[in-house]
Amino acid sequence: MALVAEAIPRALAAPARQRCMNPNCQRMVERLAAGRLPFFCGRPCREAFDYERAGLLADVAVLEAALSAGGGTYAQRRAVTVELSTRRWCLHRYMVAAGHGHTERGDVTGAE
Ligand SMILES: [Zn+2]
């Protein structure tokens, strides 16, 4: 603990402002002095984030199920694989569930 505490002054300073977690928003979010640290500039962005994330997760589930079921032509399987890769690429912008403070793996992020 003491070593970590001593290292803090040498670490990169935490920024006082970060971009809103909604990938489609350019607004900044201020780091509060106390309380829960906000991820989003407001409720509409949090809700849009949740909506987009849920849609991507649902798409990934359908595409994964289709690939697991097998069948189809090579071209069809290739098309599904490409779509799955694209959805997973998009999901990298939505790794933390809004309002839950957890990552996909269930780690607590300490912020909401
Ligand atoms: Zn926003």
Unreliable runs? 102-112
Bound molecules: zinc ion
Summed over residues and divided by their number, the pLDDT gives a mean of 87
Count of the domains:
1
Rg calculated over all Cα atoms: 19 Å
What gap, in angstroms, lies between the N and C termini? Answer: 25 Å
Count of runs of 4 or more consecutive helical residues:
3
How many strands, which pairing sense, and closed or not: the largest β-sheet?
2 strands, antiparallel
What is this entry, summarized?
The protein is mostly helical and 112 residues long.
Please provide a written account of the structure.
- The longest helix is centred in the middle third of the chain and has 27 residues, at 43-69.
- With 112 residues, the protein is mainly α.
- α2 (43-69) packs antiparallel against α3 (74-91).
- Helix content is 46%, strand content 5%.
- It is built from 3 helices and 2 strands.
- β1 (17-19) and β2 form a beta hairpin.
- A two-stranded antiparallel ribbon has the order 1-2.
- 8% of the residues are buried.
- Residues 20, 22, 25, 27, 40-41, 45 line the site of zinc ion.
Would you spell out the secondary-structure blueprint of this structure?
Blueprint: H1 2-7, E1 17-19, E2 28-30, H2 43-69, H3 74-91
Antiparallel strand pairs: 1-2
Helix pairs in contact: 2-3
Zinc ion binds at residues 20, 22, 25, 27, 40-41, 45.
List keywords for this structure.
single chain; 112 residues; mainly alpha; two-stranded antiparallel ribbon; 3 helices; 2 strands; disordered C terminus; binds zinc ion
